[in-house]
Amino acid sequence: MPRFLIETPHNELNCKLLLSQVESMGYLHSFDWGCEAGVHSGWAIIEAENEAEARLAVPFLVRNEARVIPIVKYTSEGARKIHQE
User: Fold this and answer.
1) What's CA 15's distance to the chain center, in Å?
2) Rg for the chain (alpha carbons), in Å?
3) Are 54 and 68 in contact (CB under 8 A)?
4) N or C: which end of the chain has fewer CB within 10 A?
């Protein structure tokens, strides 16, 4: 299944609300957070059928600002091959 990196930038004012919403959606355990370091953003890697489905893991509060990036893991051979094309 395709994997996506999700980045959820937010600000200090809506941080507590965002965390509460992510928790109620069942994704709190999926995210790592930079908030305590003053970097108000969360990052998660999830599996989803497509980008639109992956974006549903982000609360509406910041859904439009979230970045959803398709990601892949390469083997050594795959990495060499992709750069030869």
Assistant:
1) 16
2) 15
3) yes
4) C
CATH number at residue 53: 3.30.70
Which tokens go with 41?
């953003």
* Segment 23-53, tens digit of pLDDT: 999 999 999 999 999 999 999 999 999 999 9
- Residue 60 lies in domain: 3-84
Q: How many CA within 13 A on the CB side of residue 57?
A: 26
User: Residues 5, 8, 12, CA angle at the centre, nearest 5°?
Assistant: 155
Burial of 68 (0-12, 13-18, 19+ CB in 10 A): buried
User: In the chain, how many domains are there?
Assistant: 1
